[in-house]
Design brief:
This protein has 117 residues and is mainly α. It has a single domain, classed as Winged helix-like DNA-binding domain superfamily/Winged helix DNA-binding domain (Arc Repressor Mutant, subunit A, Orthogonal Bundle), CATH 1.10.10.10. Helices cover 68% and strands 8% of the residues. The protein has five helices and two strands; from the N terminus they run E-E-H-H-H-H-H. It has a two-stranded antiparallel ribbon with strand order 1-2. Helix 1 packs across helix 3, helix 2 crosses helix 3 and helix 3 packs across helix 4. The termini are far apart.
Length: 117
């Protein structure tokens, strides 16, 4: 079996493990940025085998420059999406923010009544 046989290459920015919906960025983020062991990663993502995790890490080690760019692009895209969402939050996010603020206001009002009363 070739190393690439573990993956489906949908596009240059979408590489996933075969028979899963897990992208290599998921495994590599845990491995590179969270310093998690392959065993810890495999226990976290139950749809992955330890062999798949090792194959992903080996693929990264064999293609560090290319995969490094892939991860950098993924991180930048995630940052851009979070920034966009901050400026254009979905309606449900605004409703939840209002409910939290109201609950906090009511909680303070109740606390004032109890301690002032």
């Amino acid at each position: 079996m070739q190393l690439e046989d573990y993956f489906i290459f949908f596009s240059t920015n979408d590489i996933r493990l075969k028979n899963t919906r897990v992208g290599i960025e998921t495994i590599l983020y845990d491995y590179i940025y969270r310093s998690r062991t392959p065993e810890e990663i495999a226990k976290t993502y139950l749809s992955l085998s330890l062999e798949q995790v090792y194959a992903t890490i080996l693929y990264y080690l064999h293609n560090k420059e290319e995969v490094g760019k892939y991860i950098t692009n993924w991180l930048e895209w995630g940052y851009q999406m979070r920034e966009e969402q901050k400026h254009n939050p979905p309606p449900i996010s605004e409703k939840l923010r209002q409910l939290r603020a109201e609950r906090l206001r009511l909680g303070k009002s109740y606390a004032n009544q109890v301690f002032d009363g």
